Amino acid sequence: PWTTIGAGERGVVTKFGQVEERILEPGLHFLMPFVESVHKIDVQVQKEQVEVGGASKDLQTVHAVIALNFHVNPLNVKTLYQQVGNEYGPRIIAPAIQEAVKATTAQFTAEELITKRAIIKDQVLNALKERLAASNIIADDLSIVDFDFSSSFNAAIEAKVTAEQNALAAKNKLEQVKFVAQQSIEKSKAEAESSRLQSQALQQGKEVIEHRNVEALLE
Question: Which of 103, 113, 124, 99 is nearest to 150 (CA)?
């Protein structure tokens, strides 16, 4: 005649198979033997991980692994049990994730799915919050565990990255050549200026000597 509801649980009571109005909170409760039964519903945060296959806006094949953290609305466990029972994971959450991810990836190109991951995550999560709320399930957070594409697309991305790296290396080398050339020009300018100053000093020296010779002759 007694049942215990643990922390993070709620109890749905049925009487001859019919759901009763009362919901059992955590603690010790009395039941009518052979008449009433209790069905425990977990209202703590749970995780549902789903593999999703879809297509991007540019028709690239997309494979994703999505992990959703959610919890059942404690105030509406009775309605959830009446409609779905305890199998809400495969019946409601997994299909909702499949639909939300496919609808979202179809709006972005494959490259954008990589570069705009945070935006895609928020968009999928918002779609799930709206859809699951109707089933008394609250979506808390979502993680994109993995995004993968076809082998041909992965090869194209790798080739693009390699080309960009080679272009950057060539640019750096060109800048280095320009720097060395500029250094040579500056060095040549400095040497030319030094020669000019030396020639000027020699000319001035000759003029001084000639002036003195003239003075000597006059004396």
Answer: 113
E-strand spans in the chain? 2-5, 9-15, 18-24, 27-30, 36-42, 46-55, 61-72, 137-149
pLDDT of residue 46: 95
Question: How far from the centroid of its chain's Cα atoms is residue 141's Cα?
Answer: 14
Looking at residue 207, its amino acid is E
Which of these ranges, 45-54, 105-114, 198-207, has the smallest mean pLDDT? 198-207
* Nearest C-alpha neighbor of 124 from the set 144, 147, 148: 144
pLDDT at 157: 63
SS3 131: helix
- Write the DSSP string, 155-170: HHHHHHHHHHHHHHHH
The pair of three-digit structure tokens given for residue 191, joined into one six-digit string: 């040497």
- Exposed, middle or buried, 126 (CB in 10 Å: 0-12/13-18/19+)? middle
